[in-house]
Structure formats: structure tokens, C-alpha cells
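A.,

Following up on our hallway conversation. C-alpha cells first:
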């Protein structure tokens, strides 16, 4: 069950390293927002949905903060399977909710958070022939690890550092699987140090406790009890990396910065990787090759950029004349 996922660009940052005071590093962005439904979730979903179809599933189900719902709904349609989506009410970006609905999923919002939604999904799947396609599905991370293999292919080796957002912690786990595989089969001579970043308001791994009511503007990583917690910690420890947290203010600053310096529009949660890179930039060795993963497309969340830039906006209509336009645009001498 494929929609042409994978093969996303690895784009070198031309302006940003100097902007953050590290012109001595090579920085690349992995643009996972260019997958078919606009996020990295498609890599794992193609495999999870193919196996669900192969194994005779009657339907699929997921809990989601948004991107999983969009991906699951699209691939379920491709597979000809009913798709049920359980969402935390009011905590999913408009673009993602629109996708799930438009692909034809049965969407139910609960008065609760993602972790409660996932508990309900587990219970529902246990009662019938319904396959869970969240990252607890064993095929999801196997599909997602292909992104690490693509990074190796483009660079000719693994990078020295990989920076990545952490929500349910499946993606950092999957990338580490991919980098270890690359080294074991000889396509890479090394593995990178893995630096993952939670949002401060949902930093369960950093704090070492489940967060009952996680809060962050980065809705895609608003998760208080990550399903891949232990594997993410293993990735951190085995790679001599770090799992840290960044504030909403740091996320939004990075979100705007990557757009204004590199022309890349990602969703806010994606910018946690860059926010973390900026926060820990002094730990990066001179001359290092660094990859920051941008997990989702900016069009997933159409409201946040307007809010972030509201003080700059002046969209009042003006007289349709060259003279007026020159005045408004600051072109008059």
C-alpha cells in the first residue's frame, strides 16, 4: 500500500549556521514534510497498512495528535479498509483534522489527551479484528528507519549529529535503528550522536515521570507518556547523545527562523529539532556534519504562522495604483 512515500530531500542550510553563530558546521535539513500526506508518518504507515491488509484486518484504528490520523486515513483508503481515528478534543491542528476527515476516516474526539486516546485504542483493538497503526505497531518503526538510510545515502556516511523532535519517541528510535543498520551492512562507517527534543510542557522523558496533562503549542509532540520511551533512552545512551526539552518560545523562534533564513516552512513541532540545535550548539564539534529532521509540513497548521506574524501583518486594501504601491512598499525616494 504505497502513495510514493520516502525519498525526501536532504537540503543544506546556506544561511542559518552563521545566523546561529556556528558557520563552522555543515547543517542539513531532512524535509519529511514532503511525504504524500505531509509528514514522516507515511514511511511507517505504508508498511503497517500493507501488513494489516496481508493479515486480513477488517479495519484499522489509531489515536493521534494529527499526523498519524492523516496518514492512517489516506493509506487505509488506499487499502480499502475502514479507518477509525481517536483524537484529543481541541488539540489537533486544523490541517491535520481536515485531512483525516476528507480521506474518509471515522473521526471521534474525546474529552481527554493523547495518552488516554491510545489507552482506548488498545482496548477497542483487543475486542475485534482491528489493527492498531500507531507506532506501537511493530511495522511502523521498521518503515520509519528508512529515513536514516536515505541520509546515509545522500551524505555518503552517517552525520556526526542528528537532531530530532520527540513526542511519542518512535521516530528517534526508528532513526537509531536505521543508522545501526547502515553501519552493520557497511553503507556507513559510523553512527551519529542522537539529540532528541521534547516540548517543555510535555517533557516526560526529561523529567522521568508521566505527565498527566501535557501542554505545548507543538501539538504533534504533546504527549505525556511516550510509547517508545525505553527505546528512545537506549538510542540516547548508545549514541552518547541527549534528550532535552525546549520551550514553546524557543520552538516558535526556530520555526520562524528556518522560514526566514532558508525558505523552509515546517510545522511548529518540527522546529523542536532546530530549537534544540540552537540551545546546544556549543556542544557540536567544529566542522561537524549535522542533520536536523523537520517532521511535518507547515501547511498542516495554517493558524500558527498567522498568529506568530500578526504584528507584521497589514492587509488593508490600498488604491490600485503604481504610486500607492510604491509608497506602501517603501520604493519611493
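Then the amino acids I'd put at each of the 333 positions:
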Amino acid at each position: 500500500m504505497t502513495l510514493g512515500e520516502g525519498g525526501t530531500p536532504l537540503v543544506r542550510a546556506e544561511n542559518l549556521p552563521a545566523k546561529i553563530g556556528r558557520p563552522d558546521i555543515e547543517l542539513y535539513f531532512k524535509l519529511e514534510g514532503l511525504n504524500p500526506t505531509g509528514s514522516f508518518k507515511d514511511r511507517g504507515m505504508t508498511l503497517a497498512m500493507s501488513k494489516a491488509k496481508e493479515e486480513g484486518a477488517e479495519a484499522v484504528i489509531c489515536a493521534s495528535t494529527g499526523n498519524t490520523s492523516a496518514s492512517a486515513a489516506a493509506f487505509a483508503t488506499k487499502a480499502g479498509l475502514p479507518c477509525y481515528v481517536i483524537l484529543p478534543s481541541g488539540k489537533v491542528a486544523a490541517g491535520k483534522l481536515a485531512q483525516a476527515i476528507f480521506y474518509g476516516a471515522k473521526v471521534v474526539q474525546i474529552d481527554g489527551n493523547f495518552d488516554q486516546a491510545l489507552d482506548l485504542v488498545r482496548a477497542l483493538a483487543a475486542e475485534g479484528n482491528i489493527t492498531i497503526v500507531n507506532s506501537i505497531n511493530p511495522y511502523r518503526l521498521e518503515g520509519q528507519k528508512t529515513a536514516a538510510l536515505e541520509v546515509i545515502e545522500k551524505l555518503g556516511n552517517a552525520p556526526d549529529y542528528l537532531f530530532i523532535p520527540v513526542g511519542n519517541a518512535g521516530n528517534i528510535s526508528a532513526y537509531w535503528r536505521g543508522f545501526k543498520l547502515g553501519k552493520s551492512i557497511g553503507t556507513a562507517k559510523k553512527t551519529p550522536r542522537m539529540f532528541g527534543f521534547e516540548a517543555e510542557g510535555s517533557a516526560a522523558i526529561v523529567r522521568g515521570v508521566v505527565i498527566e496533562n501535557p501542554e505545548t503549542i507543538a501539538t504533534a509532540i504533546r504527549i505525556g507518556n511516550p510509547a517508545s520511551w525505553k527505546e528512545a533512552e537506549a538510542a540516547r545512551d548508545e549514541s552518547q547523545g541527549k534528550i532535552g526539552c525546549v520551550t514553546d518560545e524557543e520552538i516558535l523562534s526556530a520555526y520562524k527562523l528556518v522560514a526566514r533564513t532558508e525558505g523552509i516552512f515546517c510545522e511548529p513541532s518540527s522546529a523542536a529539532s532546530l530549537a534544540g540545535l540552537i540551545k546546544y550548539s556549543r556542544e557540536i564539534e567544529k566542522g561537524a556534519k549535522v542533520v536536523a529532521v523537520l517532521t511535518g509540513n507547515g501547511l498542516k497548521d495554517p493558524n500558527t504562522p498567522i498568529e506568530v506574524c500578526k504584528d507584521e501583518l497589514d492587509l488593508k486594501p490600498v488604491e490600485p495604483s503604481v504610486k500607492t504601491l510604491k509608497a506602501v512598499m517603501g520604493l519611493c525616494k
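The first strand starts at residue 10 and ends at 12. Curious whether your intuition agrees with the design.

B.
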